[in-house]
Protein 1
Amino acid sequence: MDVVTEYLHMASKLIVGLIGVIIVIRLLGKKEMAQVTLLDFVYALVLGGVIKDAMYDPTVTIPNMIFVLAIWSVLIYLFEKVTQKSGAIRHVVKGKPVTLIKEGKLLYHKMENLNLEIEELGQLLRVEGIFSLREVNYVMFENSGQLTVLKKQSEQNQPLDTPSYTLIGDGKVIGYQLEELDRDKNWLESALAGIGKQIGDIYYAEWNYEKGWHIQDYDGRMYDFDE
């Protein structure tokens, strides 16, 4: 096989691969990127591996490639149909939404099961325009990794003009937030002593210039007070 023929062969494989990608996208239905699940990612990962190997392996012919892509497309189609019909299988394979905050309280064990840290949750909430957990009544973590948020009625008409600082997350002091406030650990410990708590007792603590402290301990008790 001369060089020109080899490159034409690779180009043909690339075209076949592109057609395969389009077919898989059509099989998965119209989804926004935010709706893509882990299973969709696996589909794409395997498909990418098949196309890559076929591109650079001269022993793989175009008929071989078409056969593999056809089998993979059929498997995806059948698997999607099975998961649509069976709720139990769908929940096992694709997961289901998880409640992270209920009635204003962080559900520690749900967060732990997802390996989701307080700071990560805070980042996701800020994307939704929420800068304090005191604003939130319910939070659902969707299969796509996005959050569905229901704010407290009492907070909807009283938006904060200043951000809240997360000073304790998962029982640990978040040092850079203290530095931004120009405060130290002694100040933090003094505030906690006022409610009879130590840093290790606290799952989450935030402070805001307007509203003061919003704290939850590992037993689920909430504390809201001014400095």
Note: The chain is about 50% helix and 20% strand.
Protein 2
Amino acid sequence: PLRLRGDAFLIVVADGNGEVDEHPNEANNVLAAPFTIDPLPFADLVTSDIVAPSQAVHGASIEVRYRVANLGSAGIRGEADAIDSWTDSIWLARDQRRPGAFKGDILLGTFEH
């Protein structure tokens, strides 16, 4: 799995469904071997250099520019596979925390890279 990292065990279970009668020798069917998982490096998309007007009039268009850079040590990828694009979103919100429509924040647009 993509996010599994560090110390783990490889475990082999003989007769895992218990179909073979080995009484009284069932206790030796499992063996675990230590195993270290070196993680793949991750991307780190960082937003910076937002340029926008300090105020706007209701109904008027505004120009917004920004920069997104990958500061991580790997290319971008999803949970399972490498991907070649992602989507940025621009919101109008009353605070600086992560935006969401459930808080009354307004999604102004999305842009695919």
Note: Residues 6-37 form one domain.
Protein 3
Amino acid sequence: MTKILILTKGVQASSSRERALVYSDLLRSNKVLYQHLGLSKRPLNYIKAIIKAPSFDIIFLQRKLVPRFFFKILRILSKKIIYDFDDAIFLDSNGEISNHKLKKFSYICSNSDLIFAGNDFLKNHANKFNKNTFLIPTCLDISKYKLSVRKDKNFFDLVWIGSKSTSKYLIEIIPLLERANKKLKDLRLINISNVVLKSKFIPIKNILWSEQVQYKELKSAKLGLAPLDDSNWSKGKCAFKVLQYASAGIPIISSNVGVNSILIKQFDAGLLVKQENDWIKHIQKLRSNPNLYKIYKKNAERMSNLFDLRVNYKKMKKIVKDAM
């Protein structure tokens, strides 16, 4: 029986849930024994990881740039280490290379047995330090999005899901959503996050994020919004928001950036914003053209099927098996 020690920032971190813990049921059903330790703000768990490492076949380190001395000890005690990441963690928040973070990143990559990167932009960076780098997109359990939810006929609901750190992108386009609503009259914004937003010119339904609530609220909407800025940091994002919308069976309007752009173009699952007023034009277009809406909706659903976690698990299982 294979034994895996999963080290993440912690269960509250979205990357921990989306790229590691989401596979819990599949690991159990495949008779893989695993244990999870969250490292953020839990120094004792670093010691636990060191003590436990020799008894596990694989250490799966997700995203965290752990201290060099810790990783060095972990490397000595571990049989195999897989490093997984889904953000441009070698950059500062302004999108510029951070020498401090890059040193940590390069050391971890160079001394891991396998690297799983969330998109090609990230893969290309990791590949400079370790040729055993594989593209593993962020996937999700699409079965959880297949619930039946009645849509509110009084509104054409636009939905955004995110966090406080990414809410700035939504806030920037709210004036454009207000202008669109001035013409269409029946728009409403569903904001699924830990941030409360207000507007005088478009109704906003603020929903505190929880894992169970998100499925119902996404499914109840008509369009998914994915605004981003055109930066290297955004290019490191893995389009999870886009995949959530697609799994809920709703077309997407997204900034023309990174993996968001690639997926929407490839599957024709929505419309891309190249200039500011496109937000208004695209919402109006999909609101007034039911046939076009249905085409994008169908394409979005087709796209989501290819990013189900079961598809990803098979790919990862083969890569790990070959490496072992």
Note: The chain has two domains: 3-139+308-323, 143-305.
